[in-house]
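Progress against Task 2.4 (sequence-to-structure conversion) is shown through the following example record, which the project officer requested during the mid-term review.
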Amino acid sequence: MVDSCLDCEYCGDGDEQYCIKGATGTYNGDKKHGRVGGNQTTKTQGGYAESHTVHEDFCLKIPDNLPIEKAAPIMCAGITMYSPINHWGGTKGNKMTIGVIGIGGLGTMGLKIAKALGHEVVAISTSKNKEELAK
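Structure tokens generated for the chain above:
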């Protein structure tokens, strides 16, 4: 996502992906709020673009001491797993038992995040060969 209206109730709650007026996606998104640069009649081109203007609310600085190859998974799998943990109160200091179903790329990221936040973590998988990875 590169933009949203930033005015509706969902944007106000930090749920810009549900923007009533429509969020602007990174790739093939309509430039509907006037803050994404370039020709406003064209779609966004994401990683295929030579440059890309993003509203400041939709970008972040990667610290100089974090190698880019380690930052990339945090931007996708990391936020995918952090978001529900945060939504259900897992970042508020309350210790919880958090179950992660499926121990693939997303699942392992979820296990790491929940563990780093100090929760009891339960890995759920139908594959016996994922047991060692989960531990």
